[in-house]
Amino acid sequence: MAWHGEPLVGFDLETTGTDPLEARIVTAAVVRVSADDPVERRVWLADPGVRIPAQASAIHGISSERAAAEGRPAREVAEEIARTLTGHWEDGVPVVAYNAAFDLTLLSAELRRYGLPSLSARLAGRPIGPVIDPYTIDRAVDRYRKGKRTLEAVCAEYGVALESAHDATADALAAVRVARAVAGRHASVAALDPARLHERQVRWYAEWAADFQAFLRRKGNAETVVDASWPMRETAPVGA
Q1: Distances from the Cα of 68 to the Cα of 64, 71, 150, 189, 235, angstroms
Q2: Starting from the edge strand earliest in sequence, which strands make up the sheet with 95-96, in order?
Q3: What percentage of the chain reaches a pLDDT higher than 90?
Q4: What is the value of pTM for the model shown?
Q5: pLDDT-derived band at 233, boundaries 50, 70, 90
Q6: Residue 52 — φ and ψ, nearest 5°?
Q7: Range list of H helices, the chain
Q8: Which of 31, 82, 157, 215 is the most exposed place for a label (fewest CB within 10 A)?
Q9: Given pLDDT bands bounded at 50, 70 and 90, which one contains residue 182?
Q10: Pick from 112, 20, 38, 43: which is nearest to 75 by CA?
Q11: From the CB of residue 187, how many other CB atoms can be counted at a distance below 10 Å?
Q12: Which of 138, 139, 129 lies closest to 193, judged by CA?
């Protein structure tokens, strides 16, 4: 059976901002999906230790007051998420994340912020993965399709229901369903095993980054650098 018919794990974060090296985790979900149904899920609400900007609260619905009152310490949340993800990788189950470079970089920055072992260290130093990122795959295999590439837009393109956008559990489950739908439409994606698909996404993401960087420089931003790392950027030391 091709990878998209096997169990997959969806992963999503809702956060305080859009810079993965500086933003903090607010909510998170890791959902194991068999067939098309979730069979196991873990969800977290964190107290990020900083104010949640109003624009972020407007997206995911979590206020600073609620996070402080109901959320668990961010260090504990980051540790449990990392342990859960690496446990699935050790079991050989791919992790699906829409725009994985954001979520995995942010998680890695949180681990470093709190002095916790990195994802790779938890896997005895081997690279993380396999990761399946429908955002990166769809952008590569249907490069010239017009329109947005948000999770909502891509769900609509592939006929996937997204019941509550920016709810971590709903987004994690939708990411899995979109990944399966992309593979169902594109036989070349379905034919790759997860390890080879992971490697292919590294190349696809780097190609996209180079193209986008060139575009921005043609527009006059001569010093622009678009990070080409996937599925995770390097995390520089950050303040607590």
Answers
A1: 6, 6, 29, 43, 26
A2: 72-73, 37-47, 25-34, 8-15, 95-96, 131-132
A3: 92
A4: 0.95
A5: very high
A6: -90, 120
A7: 54-60, 64-70, 74-90, 100-113, 119-122, 134-141, 151-158, 168-185, 187-190, 194-218
A8: 215
A9: very high
A10: 112
A11: 9
A12: 129
List the structure tokens of 114. Answer: 């709190």
pLDDT exceeds cutoff 50 at 229: yes
Our CA dihedral for 83, 108, 36, 201, rounded to 10 degrees, sits at -130
Picking from 32, 58, 31, 29, the residue whose alpha carbon sits closest to that of residue 46 is 29
What span, in angstroms and rounded, lies between the C-alpha atoms of 68 and 52?
Answer: 10
Retrieve residue 240's tokens. 């607590």
* % pLDDT > 70, the chain: 98
Residue 95's SS3 state is strand
